[in-house]
């Protein structure tokens, strides 16, 4: 097992990884920008190295500085967390070239799944159902027209290098196609430096359902059930629940077996998530994330599996300590992402946290690096806390969530807590009747 892990990330996920390491008796190295010197994970880590100024490109994306920090502190492995360098195959390769272990899958699997056209083709070849669409990049307006004839309208034009919902445009009918194609390409070019796009059928009222996987590269692949992440604003998830109110045990078992078989054929090793749109009883692959995800704690809550610990064990070459038969889903879990932002207009709200009290009690988990007096820097993602609530039933989970949100005190900055309170009081939510467009309708926003 590793003796020392460098955590190449910040915020709550860095703290989450630190906690897993601590429980395993592994020492931690925090790397941080000058804006994060007072962060909780930096305080708790065994060692800390400042790797640059606040801008991410000069610190959390600064590969030479991170590799140097790992070398001088004598770390054995690097955990990339989420975002930043977590899905960068070149980084994973360089980590290996420096005789360090990258805690994630092999670089070729990161690049395969990072190219959405290649990922969709691979998924299809592996027997995973995909959204009907062009099996390749669309290269001209003429090409787009002929592909559109096959797919039908409405359709979606998406960036091959996509992420965060950018470079995605809907064409409602043939008259909108050229403009949507042009816009998707220019947005993709601006966001990713790559204007390659592809097309697929636009699904009207799908849910976003994803399957959590763990694979050890010794032939063992298990799934930990699904998460329903349909509550999104501008393709950003806000609240997630497990299991999905829309799936039954039979459907879960079928799709679970499909994806574990596929990952076993691929030879995948590490934690991973396969994301689907789900409509009228059918699953359609949209992408695979080859890293730990923000919403992983709800799967931990209903299975009791520490996903980060397993990810570290597998990276060290250990086999998974359990099989699919050992995984028992128990109860219901919901995660609320709490952002430092105005709950009405979503303007970021960085600043000093004057008062802080996290809720507790049975079935309540809070992943957050906040404390009274902490200054939320303006340079990064606005996620400041995750509230994860577990109950024996969905109903108990909702009652507990209502209570926990009431108890949560974060003063000095605006947060999304009031939005979560409104959201969980809605009948549609209470009844589990929602799709990926529900939240934006509720907020009176257009996507
Ligand atoms: P990104 O990598 O940019 O996040 P995804 O392919 O994961 O892109 O899609 C992000 C979100 O966009 C999905 O969760 C869903 O809300 C919406 N979406 C993606 N593909 C489709 C589709 N074919 N039809 C309808 N909505 C879609």
Label the structural class. alpha+beta
Assembly status? single chain
List bound small molecules. adenosine-5'-diphosphate
- Please state how the strands of the largest beta sheet are arranged side by side: 13-12-9-10-11-14-19-17
Low-confidence stretches: none
CATH class of the largest domain: Alpha Beta
Number of strands: 20
In total, the number of domains comes to: 3
The percentage of residues in β strands lies in 25-35%
The CATH H-level homologous superfamily of the largest domain: ATP-grasp fold, B domain
Mean pLDDT: 96
Structure description:
- This protein is an alpha+beta fold and 447 residues long.
- The chain folds into three domains: 81 residues, Rossmann fold; 70 residues, ATP-grasp fold, A domain (Dna Ligase, domain 1, 2-Layer Sandwich), CATH 3.30.1490; 240 residues, D-amino Acid Aminotransferase, Chain A, domain 1 (2-Layer Sandwich), CATH 3.30.470.20.
- The protein is 34% helix and 26% strand.
- It is built from 15 helices and 20 strands.
- An eight-stranded antiparallel beta sheet has the order 13-12-9-10-11-14-19-17, sandwiched between helices. Strands 3-2-1-4-5 form a five-stranded parallel beta sheet. Strands 7-6-8 form a three-stranded antiparallel beta sheet, covered by helices on one side.
- Strand 2, helix 2 and strand 3 form a beta-alpha-beta unit.
- It is globular and about 60 Å long.
- The mean pLDDT is 96.
- The structure holds adenosine-5'-diphosphate.
- The site of adenosine-5'-diphosphate has 19 residues, from strand 8, strand 12 and strand 13.
- Adenosine-5'-diphosphate binds next to strand 8, strand 12 and strand 13.
């Amino acid at each position: 097992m590793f003796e020392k892990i460098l955590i190449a990330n910040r915020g709550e996920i860095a703290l989450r990884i630190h906690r897993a390491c601590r429980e395993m008796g592994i020492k931690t190295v925090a790397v941080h920008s000058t804006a994060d010197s007072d962060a909780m994970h930096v305080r708790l880590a065994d060692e800390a190295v400042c790797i640059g100024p606040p801008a991410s490109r000069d610190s959390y994306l600064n590969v030479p500085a991170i590799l140097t920090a790992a070398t001088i502190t004598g770390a054995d492995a690097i955990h990339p967390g989420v975002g930043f360098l977590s899905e960068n195959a070149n980084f994973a390769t360089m980590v290996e070239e420096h005789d360090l272990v990258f805690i994630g899958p092999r670089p070729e699997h990161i690049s395969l799944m990072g190219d959405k056209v290649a990922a969709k083709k691979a998924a299809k070849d592996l027997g995973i159902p995909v959204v009907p669409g062009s099996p390749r990049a669309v290269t001209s307006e003429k090409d787009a027209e002929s592909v559109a004839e096959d797919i039908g309208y409405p359709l979606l034009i998406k960036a091959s290098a996509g992420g965060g919902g950018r470079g995605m445009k809907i064409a409602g009918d043939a008259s909108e196609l050229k403009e949507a194609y042009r816009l998707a390409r220019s947005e993709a070019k601006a966001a990713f430096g790559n204007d390659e796009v592809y097309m697929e059928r636009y699904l009207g009222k799908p849910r976003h359902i994803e399957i959590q996987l763990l694979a050890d590269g010794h032939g063992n692949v298990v799934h930990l059930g699904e998460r329903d992440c349909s509550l999104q604003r501008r393709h950003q998830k806000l609240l997630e629940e497990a299991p999905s109110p829309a799936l039954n045990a039979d459907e879960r078992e079928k799709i679970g077996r499909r994806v574990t078989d596929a990952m076993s054929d691929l030879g995948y090793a590490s934690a991973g998530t396969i994301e689907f749109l789900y409509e009228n009883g059918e699953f359609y692959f949209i992408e695979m994330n080859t890293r730990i995800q923000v919403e992983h704690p709800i799967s931990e809550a209903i299975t009791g599996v520490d996903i980060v610990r397993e990810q570290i064990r597998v990276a060290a070459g250990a086999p998974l300590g359990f099989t699919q038969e050992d995984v028992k889903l128990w109860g219901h879990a919901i995660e609320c992402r709490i952002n430092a932002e105005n709950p009405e207009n979503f303007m970021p709200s960085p600043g000093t946290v004057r008062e802080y009290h996290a809720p507790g009690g049975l079935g309540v988990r809070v992943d957050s690096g906040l404390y009274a007096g902490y200054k939320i820097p303006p340079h990064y993602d606005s996620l400041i806390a995750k509230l994860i609530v577990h109950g024996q039933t969905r109903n108990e989970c909702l009652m507990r969530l209502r209570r926990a949100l009431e108890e949560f005190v974060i003063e000095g900055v605006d947060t999304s807590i009031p939005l979560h309170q409104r959201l969980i009081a809605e009948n549609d939510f209470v009844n589990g009747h929602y799709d990926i467009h529900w939240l934006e309708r509720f907020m009176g926003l257009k996507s």
